[in-house]
Amino acid sequence: METDSIDSVIDDDEIHQKHQFSSTKSQGGATVVISPATSVYELLECPVCTNSMYPPIHQCHNGHTLCSTCKSRVHNRCPTCRQELGDIRCLALEKVAESLELPCKYYNLGCLGIFPYYSKLKHESQCNFRPYSCPYAGSECAAVGDITFLVAHLRDDHKVDMHTGCTFNHRYVKSNPREVENATWMLTVFQCFGQYFCLHFEAFQLGMAPVYMAFLRFMGDEDDARNYTYSLEVGGSGRKQTWEGTPRSVRDSHRKVRDSHDGLIIQRNMALFFSGGDKKELKLRVTGRIWKEQQNPDSGVCITSMCSS
Amino acid sequence: MDLDSMDCTSTMDVTDDEEIHQDRHSYASVSKHHHTNNNTTNVNAAASGLLPTTTSVHELLECPVCTNSMYPPIHQCHNGHTLCSTCKARVHNRCPTCRQELGDIRCLALEKVAESLELPCKHMSLGCPEIFPYYSKLKHETVCNFRPYSCPYAGSECSVTGDIPFLVAHLRDDHKVDMHSGCTFNHRYVKSNPREVENATWMLTVFHCFGQYFCLHFEAFQLGMAPVYMAFLRFMGDETEARNYNYSLEVGGYGRKLIWEGTPRSVRDSHRKVRDSHDGLIIQRNMALFFSGGDRKELKLRVTGRIWKEQQQSGEGGGACIPNLS
Asked: Where is this region: SBD (chain A)?
């Protein structure tokens, strides 16, 4: 739900566009599943909820197993044989699980690791091959996939603007700047250096103070994100504020990055000052640049940032 | 326990001047093919790498009391401590691990885990390269070609096992068995009281030829109700290799002759099994006494024999074949 839509216009100003480098990474390979481990792994699946079981694993007198969560729901009756459950533990299966090693569930996405059963979930929650969540903030979008899929998803399903280039110049216009409480979101995707970057712009309450924030997220993993640096700049009427930092991986959620204040934060009074005029309308022009860390940028005079707060 | 000790006079190539005309001259062909391919010492390093999973799961399938492998039904207490069926019957409903009441609880999960387990043969260190499902492992191990051999000495309940060179030394040093080299033999068996057949007696001689070892057995036993003497040959090695050889045993006297020709049995087959299958030269007591001559008061049998390899074309020359009159 957008009230007073923010208009994003790219102007051909004196910003010098660098040409982009295109590099494509390919991941391949799949792990062969060890068949004895597979059938033992099936034994570790709760017959009721089909989730993996973890200690304490329960069983009935006949040996039918059950996870702790389901045991508390079945009212002391075995779901398999209807016998009384009692309070019997299947210690043997817990020990079998200790000695079990299994491939990561993302092995078909390229992960070659094999992990002890009791470490598998932890690894999978941070596996570099796990699919990415949709970076579109606002709607609770549950889409997941690889970067290529998500870029198409952002373009086709969320109608996000797509741009190519390492520099950008955005104008954000809002007719009623007082309504900061209702956070609004603006997302633009940039393609440069063969990668994709998400530029976020939004308004939110920082403590009790209304602020606007712009920040960049890298569509990929944290390790790759660290190869890049970006700057964001806003100003007007003799004032300028610049943020320079490293893009955050989309592995970190939008809210996490926002709440860590990792980006350009503009207090509302300064935003109105930058907008000029009669302080009735928000007009911000945010310019920015993305570069690779290994390169030595030797262009332009660096104007020291005068930050008035 | 020897009653009226049987005197075995082993004379190689001895010809007695009796009226029996020995037409065939014995071949003293001692061909020593030293095949050093004893399978028992051929340790195949091809025992495939064990999954850490397999080893530690296998330990879970060991009964904590008797340390034998457990098979269904596997029992447990409320706390999950497992126990085999045999030990459960002995522990009077008290868990040996935590002293809690056992009850009647089955560890079905561990039984199913065992189904999916594959383990190397326990004779892996003796050369067996194979891996088997848990529930098939014991069966294989009883027939594995790499399993150690039992002592072929019959009579005493000798429980010694080992490979063939070890057992040959054991027979010579511990059982004082006569050792001979050569492919032909000529044995005299003398017993002063031939009536006592009920108490079986045993005589064992080991022959070394073709680079292999053969056990010649001679004994007396009741065949049904009839007292008989029997001589047979066993090969110190496996059945498949024993089939490469043939042997003959011959006994006779006074115009009669009995000849047995056959294939040696592997020492994998026990002495009793071979005897009870009648696979050898069987002499009824009345014929044995006839062959012994004299006043039928004393047993005097001369058994001659020969071992040859099947692949060889043994052109047996000479001698009229006298049909066996029984």
From this structure: 96-289
